[in-house]
């Protein structure tokens, strides 16, 4: 089964807001080209605007909603320098136009409370510069447009984030329903059997002196009921393990696709030995979490065998793979189960996490 990656909301926005709206950089480019300056200065200004567009587009791939990280801050600083470098030739046309893109960028790559503050500071700063230099009539309309853009992208960000929260709530609800179903299954499976065993044990206790043969029969039936209960529990646990591995594969597929990573997963987990399904579910969870957090991959392959599982990505990899707490804990879990975990670099780039048992 192969799931093609659908771009996440911010990747779509980077294509729309970055790819389409960057056409407005044509205005400062034209201003730079028509400026009364030396040819080298005009060409340098145009190159600054082109570099600004490249850094801006690339910046969408490095931000995180949950926390502030250095990569988007560095991108933003570079964009600021490039925007200000256009002023000597392009005038206010360059920095003000670039400021609008920088505001949109901050909304997409920082936690919301941080991005709103940064975007507000950028916008207010540009307004102060325009007012203090007496260019309100000339550039006021562009600043107003910047305010509308900021409001629009903030609304889009909040809408997408609300959608993520809804999906997370839905996943938690599904998990709660699954726990309730398991509780019902266990109750239905063992409730009657344990009640029958209790009744027969009490009866056997009363018959030990009065009717030894009958008591022995009751004890034999208790043993039979116990064996049946053990068999049923093992079958139920085996089924739960299979469902757990299915659930982890589904969850991994959903998370990877949401992150823009195309993924290929097996359609059936029955090939895996029942005793290994729970272990392999943990392997799938931890390995795909690492792919999401650290790989910068665009594709991922999950393969299952009777006694092995492997997760491969085409990300950046490393000749010296460093194991964090997650992989160390997973290695301990695998070794306790009598298996072996290997982490290696994929030919052509990427990482392979494989477990055999």
Question: How would you portray this structure in words?
Answer:
The chain is α+β, with helices and mostly antiparallel strands. It folds into two domains: 163 residues; 112 residues, 2-Layer Sandwich (Heat Shock Protein 90). Helices cover 72% and strands 8% of the residues.
Q: Which structural class matches the secondary elements?
A: alpha+beta
- Strand line-up of the largest beta sheet: 1-2-3-4-6-5
- Arithmetic mean pLDDT: 79
Tally of helical segments = 11
Main sheet summary: 6 strands, mixed
Radius of gyration: 31 Å
Which bin fits the share of residues in helices?
over 70%
SSE string:
EHHHHHHHHHEHEEHEE
Write down how many β-strands occur, each being a DSSP E stretch of 2 or more residues: 6
Instruction: Based on Cα principal axes, name the global outline.
Output: elongated
What's the domain count? 2
Low-confidence stretches: 4-14
- Strand-residue fraction? 5-15%
Please report the distance between the alpha carbons of the first and last residues: 24 Å
